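Schema walk-through. Below, the input block comes first and the output block second. Nothing else is stored per chain. Lengths vary across the set, and this one has 338 residues.
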Amino acid sequence: MDSTAVYFTAPGRIELRKEPLPALEPFQLLVQTDVSAISAGTEMLVYRGQFPRDLADPNDSLSAGLHYPLCYGYASVGRVKECGELVDASWRDRLVFSFQPHKSHYITTPDTLLPVPDGITAANAVFLPNMETAVNFVQDAEPVLGERVLVLGQGIVGLLTASLLHEFPVQRLVTADRYQLRRQASLAIGLDSALDPSFDDFHAAAVRSLPSGATGFDLTLELSGNPSALDDAIALTMFSGRILIGSWYGEKRAPLDLGGSFHRSRITLLSSQVSSISPKLAARWTKSRRFDVAWEALRRHQPEKWITHRLPVAEAAEAYRVLDQSPEQAIQVVLDYS
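--- output ---
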């Protein structure tokens, strides 16, 4: 049997390759993919050739090194089709999630699979990595009762993070994204305001969205993927406020205005990434516990409503082209293997 795999071969180039699958070992399973989700953040850096080549974090799945040709991805949902003789037969036909690249079939071991809980569709389950990321951001951000919160960036991770923050009793929750489609999705969550950061009066509009007399936000989350947005975050965060930086910028650079009010602001800049548990929580929290929280959040928020493009894997090149050239038309793009 062959597997169809999606490969990045050069900046802006996608190829489909047929790969023969090895014989199933007694301790392995064969999974047939139903759907996989394309990351509009990390994967687009790979697609554009903007990723750093010198990653060295043992907690990061990218640390083995990135170079073309590369089969990459990390959000795959499918069904177990065959089980090795040493694998519990109850795995057969089970809907499972795996941090697998975009492949139609793959052979793996049970410890790499997460059974999808009953009542969660494949189209919702494929959002698990992004929901886990959103859970991590909220845990690291530590929102406080009555705070004023700003989320910069309303791609999938931003929307999921805003959805979780909307469950907290914050005084005001404002989001910003340059694309109207994403601002509309943000408002549909029930947020107070969704602004366009490309407008000249963005900073003034953000302050106007706050209660009378307020001059800025207590907590700002920078999730746009645009390093220049950090200047917006600094300008809009109050004295002694907190800025959580969840974006991965890759090799993108932007100058920051750290010579003005920031010097006296006592603002805290916090990096946050899902590959590890916050040191504050690590004694009590595990990845498994955080996944349980993410699954329940998926059940509550049903993010499959944000799938704007569902393309057959044969059209993978078009899927990436849409995200690269027409991002204003897309929120979540998924590949279908049926």
